[in-house]
Amino acid sequence: MYLYINPFANTDSCLTVWDWLCVLRLEQYSEAFRSEGLATLGQCRNLTPDQLERMGITLPGHQRRILASLNKTLGNKKERPVPKERTRFRSSAPVDCDLNSLVSPTSDTSLPPVPPRSTPNCPPQRFTSPLSPSPPARTPASPKLDRHAVKAPAVHSRAISQSSTHDPTHAPLHPPNVPSALTRPQTLAIQLPAQLLGSDGGRKISPVSPTASHSDDINVPPLPPKAGAVPKGPPPIPHRFPEVYSKGIISTAFITNVTSVGELKFEVVTNNRTFIFRAESEGERNDWVTVLKDCSRGRYWRSTMNPSSPLTPDYQGYLELRGLRSKLYTVVASDKVFLYKTMEDYRLGVGITSIEMNVGNVKDTDRRGFDLTTPYRIFSFIAESEQLREQWVDAMREAIDEALSNSEVAERIWAEPSNSFCADCEAPKPEWAAINLCVVVCKRCAGEHRGLGPSISKVRSLKMDKNIWTEELIQVFLLLGNKQVNSFWAANVPPSEALTSSSCSEERRRFITNKYRQGKYRKYHPLYGNQRELDNALCINVQCSDVLETLSLIFCGADVNCPTGVASCPSALSLANAHSQPLQAELIRHNLNTELPRSEVGGGMEAVHYSPPPCVSYNGFLFKTASMARAITERKAREEFSRRWCTLNDCTFSYYESDKNSNPNGALKASEIVCLAVDAPEKHGYDSTFELYSESERLYLFGTDDPDSHKEWVKSIAKSFIPATAEPLLRLAFERIGRLKCKDGLNLQTSKVGWFALVGSTLHAYLEDSKGEEIHLRKLNELSIQQDNEVLVLVERGRTLYIEGERKLDFAGWCGAIQAAAGSGGDTLSQQQLTETDIPVIVHSCIGYITQCGLTSEGIYRKSGVNSRVAALCERFRRDARSLCLREGEHQVDDVSNTLKRFFRELEMGLFTAEDACTWLTTAAIQDESKKISQYQLLFSRLPRVNKATLQALINHLYCVQRFSELNQMNLHNLAIVFGPTLFQTDGKDFSAGRVIEDLIQHYTLIFEVDEQQLNKQLEEITVIIKVRETLNTNTEPGGHFICTVYLEEKKETAEQHVKIPGSMTAAELTCEVLDRRNILAKDKEYWSCWEVSDKEEMERPLHYQERVLPILHSFGTDSHLLIKKHPAMEMMMVYLASKVDASKHGIMKFREERSILGLGLSSGSFHDRYFILNSSSLRMYKEVRSNRPERDWSVKNLKVYLGIKKKFRPPTWYLCCDIQSEMREWYATFLSIQYDGNVWPQNGLQQTRVSRVLPDTRHGNVSLIPLRGSENEMRNSVAAFSQDPLAVSEPTNHWD
């Protein structure tokens, strides 16, 4: 524990100057006082600032601290009356106190009350007197009470007794005959890690006994004259803190007696509690007793010090500390925060710990919570209300400022009158400065300066960054001043853009960026644009004293590192030093690496003046719904709209009850509007509607039946809030326009504001410091939402753009609109999601997959896939082709090839366009090959851009397919027969369409002017792919099926079954096949399932009966296997699901996420109770039931749920624990039901999933096959069999899907 010693044990005139200065932490001036003959506090009574200046105490802050302490301690003593009779008290005397030193119990009621003890090293003590009650303390119940009116409680003495007492008695006053040696000032903290013993001799021991552990950490507060570690009993205070913080503190102001009580023991007696400690040796015990007596003896001779001591509490009250589930009485005093268990403990001087605020930092966490962060621990507090939280945060931040501040530099800088106001917003008393820009700024502007980065603005505090403020730097700021510096930086600020002290953060950010990053308002130097002359002028000017001219030269483009041409002084900095210009050198030194403003001036060297944006005015009637805090998901009927008179004047959009009213119902400033969305016609009850999104997360919906009026309103409102730099956006027929924060791949450190407009599938953007650009959303490589729906990632070739969700409401609207625009917009080629080369993603994906996995498949493009799977693939590609990744095993080659053919057959306008299709067909009849090729080239050049790129990609692919016809049996003629009717969308009754495709493939290199060397390289790569696949498939069956070992009920040799696993086999089919081999009949209510088992992780997962087995095998490790066994909980799960009304669940589970200890290969982490909500889309985890915001959020569809206990678990895997088996079963059943849309088990049982797996004959599905081998005539005669679309027929009956 820490026993804090009262610094003013005797504040009378006999208190030595040394001890007084130690309390003030100004002991460095003791020699100055001694040289002036000032030895005691009384001799310093009449000190003045001039006298302190002559003594060498020049720092204004130190002078104020000394004079304030003298005034508080001695200021009320000049007229103090001398009592006629000594005050006597009725308290019994301590056993180690001379009874003759006690006074009569008679007391003079005219005397002021006895003051509390106070010291910078101990908790502040409230003071009350039975004769003159103190005003109530400033607590959360009375937050506005003046802090200086708060007094400490009366300090009570007590006689030694065998039980604690709460009866207050008066401490004796200082007797006049007490020697000065006994008035030893007590200024140090005593650390007493002590052994608390049980009752001894019937004495009742206090239940609260502060203790502390011995620590050698250098961060522990300084040791007192006596400190040590002794054994101790169970800690009496249930609050556990790191070793740097004590477990208990006892104010020595309340220690009434210290005595030895037996072998190696001593007791410390306070007003109502007794603490017994045990030392390690007799000498150690005696030393402790002596030191404690010396520290506490001054109590009995205290003077009437002014109760308004230096440590009067600044703020106090109850705060809840997270993790303890209880409230602590917290006191903020000067530069410390003290924690007590209760207010009563605070009154009695027994606390928990104190926190030095010179290492603290305070930040808000949620509505009522905030964190006090130190290097040793984070204290998470919860206030009783938002208002009280703000008051607590302000009080603690003031304590931090008190601990760190030194106003000497600030006072000197403010001596220049213009520096006493912010250079950007003119707020008074600015405490920050950009030392390279030479401007003094306020705290709010300093935050925006930091956002520019240290390469532009180097922000330092006037009060806390003392080391940076050299004498030369201070002189630079005094010489220039904000007024002169702004004559350069702010020479051309238009009134409409000027800041005020009440400006919002967005306005400050925009202004400061324009002013310093872009140099928009600066006064351009006459030499601007002439680099050589600028550098030469800089080298000349640094040799004289004109610092402002040097500033102008540097920030108009002069290179501070330019060569001077002087061998002895190669740089401008060395020139300044050589010519004894320290202020010039200081300015250059702070700008050696400064990034100069980027804006350019066209034409001459005249300063550029910026005019304010034109005023927009418009008015008329609109229909409005009530404002909303969430997105609109349903159609709004006409009845939900109200007619309002709306006006747009002076950049303010207002709406009134009618055109007769003068007071608006509401108004939106243009600066508050962040997004304008134009709805599709007839989306709501009125034909034309638009939405406005505000900074305050509100959505306003307006409508009208007049399309012209709607168009004018949209144009006018957009013009009012879109800046001039993004004015080209206003000329677009946008669907959504507004402001967003974003980062790009070149600078991910700081966000910048961008103005965006969405037009069709193109996103137009004007970012800071860049020209307008277009982002073709359908050509993106990736479009995703990351970081808990707060960042939209757009990946295009060579660049990634991160759009941040500064506000949830409008960001959600942007995400939905951009995702919809990036998807396929129709059935024409140009409306598809495209690659960078303008090829539809569906075509690119299918060609790539077949090139990798299907070039050796016999009958590729001729065999029919499973119709339902083809339809599903087409739908997924149509919904979002970019998000679908074709994988071997999961997708079949024939399904993919038929998907590609169906896409071209259903393509609106066709690949060859409706206008030119007939010309293509007639060209095939030309006999002259050279003329035919020329005509094909002409027709090809007339195709639209996307059609042209797609046709070339497809013919290139078919050319490669026929080059490997010895493997796939698809030669030139076979491909022409298949793709002719498909691409021309004909009935196939003649071969003219096939002849065109045949010509295009045969003359591919000539028609498309292909580089043959590049084509040969492509064929070589395909050959390598085929060889690699042949090598990898040596362990598979010739038919391409994998052979896998499956176990029945348990893993042992006698239960092994070797099964062929085709790519389409499901878990139910595998289960039935294994059961059939062992002649096991699945009875009713026997839920046989296939399980994925991991031996290493000791976990298992029942596969859903529709889940494909082959992808599971591909993801297997060597320690995993498949097991067929009964599902013991399936019946109970189905009963539970049948009883549920909705597919959701919530409740408490234990959560654990494994994290590796870097470098050790070990894991860490423990279970914590968390509240979970599982719904149809996500699993959300909250810290507790009352939490408003989830800690984590996972998409349910992407989760794999394993069962079992995991001893070793590698990150980033996490797992949950339920208290009982039935609870876990319910959670798992809900997971399955959501993931598979309620289809947990086959409706008719497992037997219905048995499918006879026979190889198909010459008919795949119900489509006849053209012979793959035979003469050309035979193939041409078989075209009639291709008279209808093989994919347009009904679903085959001999395939399980």
Commentary on this structure:
- Helix content is 29%, strand content 18%.
- It has 1297 residues and is an alpha+beta fold.
- The strands form nine sheets. Strands 18, 19, 20, 21, 22, 23, 24, 25, 26, 27, 28, 29, 30 and 31 form a 14-stranded antiparallel sheet that branches. The chain has a seven-stranded antiparallel sheet with strand order 11-9-8-7-14-13-12. Strands 33-32-36-34-35 form a five-stranded mixed sheet.
- The longest helix is centred in the last third of the chain and has 21 residues, at 1012-1032.
- The protein starts with a strand and ends in a 20-residue tail after the last helix.
- The relative contact order is 0.04.
- The N terminus and C terminus are likely disordered.
What is this structure's SSE topology?
Elements: E1 2-4, H1 17-24, H2 30-35, H3 49-54, H4 60-74, E2 189-191, E3 249-251, E4 255-260, E5 265-270, E6 274-278, H5 282-296, E7 315-321, E8 326-333, E9 336-340, H6 343-348, E10 350-351, E11 353-356, E12 361-364, E13 369-373, E14 378-382, H7 386-404, H8 408-414, E15 432-434, E16 439-441, H9 443-452, E17 459-461, H10 471-489, H11 505-517, H12 531-541, H13 547-554, H14 572-578, H15 582-589, E18 618-624, E19 642-649, E20 652-656, E21 666-669, E22 673-678, E23 688-694, E24 699-704, H16 707-721, E25 736-744, E26 747-759, E27 762-767, E28 773-776, E29 782-786, E30 791-796, E31 799-804, H17 808-822, H18 841-853, H19 867-880, H20 893-905, H21 917-923, H22 929-942, H23 945-963, H24 965-968, H25 972-984, H26 992-1002, H27 1004-1007, H28 1012-1032, E32 1042-1048, E33 1056-1061, H29 1067-1077, E34 1088-1094, E35 1099-1102, H30 1109-1115, E36 1120-1126, H31 1130-1139, E37 1145-1153, E38 1155-1157, E39 1162-1164, E40 1168-1174, E41 1178-1182, E42 1192-1195, E43 1214-1217, H32 1221-1235, E44 1259-1260, E45 1263-1264, H33 1272-1277
Parallel strand pairs: 1-3, 32-36
Antiparallel strand pairs: 1-2, 3-10, 4-5, 5-6, 7-8, 7-14, 8-9, 9-11, 12-13, 13-14, 15-16, 15-17, 18-19, 18-24, 19-20, 20-21, 22-23, 22-25, 23-24, 25-26, 25-31, 26-27, 27-28, 29-30, 30-31, 32-33, 34-35, 34-36, 37-40, 37-43, 38-39, 40-41, 41-42, 44-45
Region (Disordered): 73-181, 198-234
Keywords: Cytoplasm, GTPase activation, Metal-binding, Phosphoprotein, Repeat, Zinc, Zinc-finger
Subcellular location: Cytoplasm
